[in-house]
Write a structure and sequence with these properties.
Layout lengths: L2 H12 L3 H17 L5 E5 L5 H7 L4 E5 L3 H10 L1 H6 L2 E4 L3 H5 L10 E6 L10 H11 E12 L10 H13 L1 E6 L2 E6 L1 H8 L3 E10 L2 E8 L7
Parallel strand pairs: 1-2, 1-4, 2-3, 4-5
Antiparallel strand pairs: 5-9, 6-7, 8-9
Helix pairs in contact: 1-4
């Protein structure tokens, strides 16, 4: 499958459900409410670039990262004009490369990190990511993430939901096989534990459907000692 076809297919899939379209719109509205105007924004797990383009068109300075070469190739075409103008900077490479990148962005610290459509649910070891994002962000920065709701009642029709419910209550997480690796369902309390000491879970919002929105606030250096 060509990168163009794969990217277009993914973009179509994530906009097919009315509930997902509403959740994406609600997520974008939350970012616009919380992020300072003209903020330097990292779209982590940018996928096909739908959000990167949306935020760049509203005056944000966007850095878009995804580790899937097919998504990055589609994003490069979908956002060609905004990349050419400097409104979007596309970062490619493996997730390991992202974690091992430069200590701070050459253009200055980020104001906000967005992670829409549940990329954090694909990462088994979140502390390393939160440590990296702490290094990339400024003192008042926040992370705004859309994550899978582990208690989504719509999943109660599946046997795996019931089988894993005791584990969720006991440990705060469980994993299921996905197309590109394990997909982890986590409680908000588990996310709160994973982000410490670099960030604090400040609030949660009902995202609608199968998503919830979490807002993390960057901790000052003293909070990490």
């Amino acid at each position: 499958m060509s990168a163009s076809h794969a990217g277009a297919e993914y973009a179509a899939a994530i906009t097919a459900r009315e509930s997902d379209r509403r959740a994406r719109a609600a997520f974008r509205e939350l970012v616009l409410r919380l992020a300072p105007p003209g903020a330097a924004l990292l779209d982590f797990g940018a996928g096909a670039g739908l959000d990167a383009r949306y935020f760049a068109e509203r005056g944000f300075r966007v850095r878009a990262y995804d580790n899937d070469p097919r998504m990055c190739e589609f994003l490069a075409r979908h956002c060609r004009d905004l990349i050419a103008s400097g409104a979007i900077a596309l970062e490619t490479g493996s997730y390991a490369d992202f974690l091992a990148g430069a200590p701070a962005p050459p253009e200055g610290p980020l104001d906000v990190v967005t992670a829409n459509f549940a990329p954090l649910n694909l990462i088994a070891h979140l502390p390393a990511l939160f440590a990296r994002l702490h290094a990339l962000t400024g003192p008042q920065a926040s992370i705004i993430a859309s994550v899978l709701n582990p208690f989504f009642i719509g999943d109660a029709r599946y046997g795996w939901w019931w089988r894993n419910l005791p584990r969720l209550w006991r440990t705060g997480r469980y994993a299921l096989p996905g197309a590109q690796g394990e997909i982890l369902r986590r409680t908000a309390a588990d996310f709160a534990g994973q982000c410490a000491p670099w960030f604090s879970l400040e609030r949660r919002h009902r995202g609608g459907g199968r998503f919830i929105f979490l807002v993390f606030r960057r901790n000052p250096p003293a909070a990490r000692s």
